[in-house]
Design goal:
This protein is mostly helical. It has a domain of about 180 residues. Helices cover about 75% and strands about 0% of the residues. It has a two-stranded antiparallel sheet with strand order 1-2. A hairpin with a 7-residue loop joins strand 1 and strand 2.
Length: about 300
Amino acid sequence: MKADMRNIEVIAQKEFTDHLYSPGFRMLLGIFTLIIVSMSVISGKNGHNIFEFGFLDVAQVITLFLPVLGITLGFDSVVREKNSKSLNTLLTHPVFRDNLISGKIIGGIGTLVLVVFISVIASIGTLLLITGIDVGLSELNRIIVFSLLTFLYLSGFFAFSLLISIVSKSSESSFISGLVVWINLVLIFGAIVTVASSVITGESIVNLGHNEEALSMSKDLQKLSPASYYAEAVTGVRVSYGSFGISSGKETRGIFDTRVGLGTWFADYWTNLIVLITIPVLMFILSYMVFLRRDIGGEKG
């Protein structure tokens, strides 16, 4: 057991270091950080108090684009080593498959923690610095919950990309698969929902916003995207580019609504939290099952 833990620790450290020194990852992180800081500066200069007006603009950027970082962390985590044959060599040493996949998951999660920390500092930190808002224990607790929600949201995409990396034959196909899922489930999902609502209800797209049946249909269809659960819990609105920003209709306008307590927020959005937890957990379990059963030695890149 002690040897297994040591193996997992070494693999996790290697994964964490590889991610930090990856030029592609650092470039994406830099770009997203710059975008988030820019949006936060604009909101701050407009005098937006996130504990009064919400966090809609910056949250939309995080919801739509930050999942790419989660995909970047996992898309070649296994397939790269499998095709270079280093995976076969590693498994000939006293390192079990469950040690390897555990180390990769822990290393990726550690990197996600860093990503979330940077995102929170870049967004909320910038806003608070510009507006000069005092932060008490209540506000700090909400920032912590927001950080947890963001971590769970990104973990789902990391876990999915890790699973795809296990079953893919090349890093390119793994990355493309991850991008296709991101584009369809997040980036253009709102447009897909709009078209589907129009087709199902028979209402023209320009009049969908005035059709109660279409709005209800759009609200139901948006539940198919993890982005809707994250955005709704953070802002109280299902942020979906190309579709309607549908309010949850609940008492709380997201995690930063200080008019009500955290208990009320949890009562309103506990199902969102459960979904955001369940997605990465299921993906990680599938990754374990597939990796432990897969014939690594017999595959060719």
